[in-house]
Amino acid sequence: MRPNPPTISGLTRYGRAMGCALAPALLFAAPAMAQTEHHHHDAGPAAAPDYAPKAQAASPTPFTLGVKVTRSDGMVIDLSALKGRPTIMTMFFASCPDVCPLMTENILQAESQIPADELKDLQVVMVSFDDRDTPAVLDAYRKAHGIMSPRWTIASASPAASRTLGDLLGVRFQKLPNGSYSHTAMVDLVAADGAILARVPGPSLADPEFQAAIRAMLSMSSAANP
Q1: Exposure of 96 by Cβ count < 10 A (0-12 exposed, 13-18 middle, 19+ buried)?
Q2: DSSP notation for 9-58
Q3: Which of 149, 180, 183, 193 is disulfide-compatible with 173, CB 3.0–4.6 A?
Q4: Cβ atoms of residues 78 and 221 within 8 Å
Q5: Amino acid 207: pLDDT
């Protein structure tokens, strides 16, 4: 079983050990809120939460799964190429009418409140699980949200690769008869080494504590790499 991110107390202890305190009200693995589903369809039963401490060295990370993605510029990369920077990571689909664009805008809003000298080390990775999301579609999505920064990777993955990544990130998705998707609205904060520090339900992204949580993650990275 792949362990879930640690509980509030575990995150707080880890944050303080790195010289900062994480935002405990926001950073958690929440079995209730983690069921936030899009389009009012259930994407399947949730696994029982596992709050055991993470075995950092042995645990798979988004950067060690061997998942290949196709970026909005058409380049195919392995997610391992993105290891080494603190990361906001989520999954989405470009034609989503509500939750996905809202999550994107909330991430952009949180970023806008963080000083530029702190943001330089942050990257945002959004991976689509929709096989209709070609590079042209993803590029249009990027432009529609005014995303110009090279720190953002907007990409798509094959159905199999999406399932593999979604299993690790706590994102479930299911294609509906009308071609849309039911999916979990979830954003993960991932340390530079790939360890998942926290799982944030989509509705919490508008909370000011989300921006504080990002800054805490960046502070941890700076403390680890002075």
Answers
A1: buried
A2: HHHHHHHHHTTS---TTT-B--TTGGG-BGGG---SPPPPP--PPP-TTT
A3: 183
A4: no
A5: 87
How many degrees, rounded to 5, is the angle at CA 169 between CA 31 and CA 128? 125
**The two three-digit tokens of residue 86, written as one number:** 């603190």
SS (H, E, C) 114-169: CCHHHHCCCEEEEEECCCCCCHHHHHHHHHHCCCCCCCEEEEECCHHHHHHHHHHH
Q: Report, as an integer, the average pLDDT of 55-74.
A: 85
Q: Which fold has domain 8-45+53-224?
A: Glutaredoxin (3.40.30)
Residue 20 annotated as binding?
Answer: no
Residue linked to tokens 């590079």 = 135
Tokens 């399932």 identify what position?
163
Contact 2, 166 (CB under 8 A): no
Token pair for 190 = 């991932």
In tens, the pLDDT along 66-123 reads: 999 999 999 999 999 999 999 999 999 999 999 999 999 999 999 999 998 889 899 9
The structural domains of the chain, with segments of one domain joined by +, span 8-45+53-224
Supply angle C-alpha 29, 35, 40, rounded to 5. Answer: 160
Confidence (pTM): 0.77
Q: Which amino acid type is present at position 9?
A: S
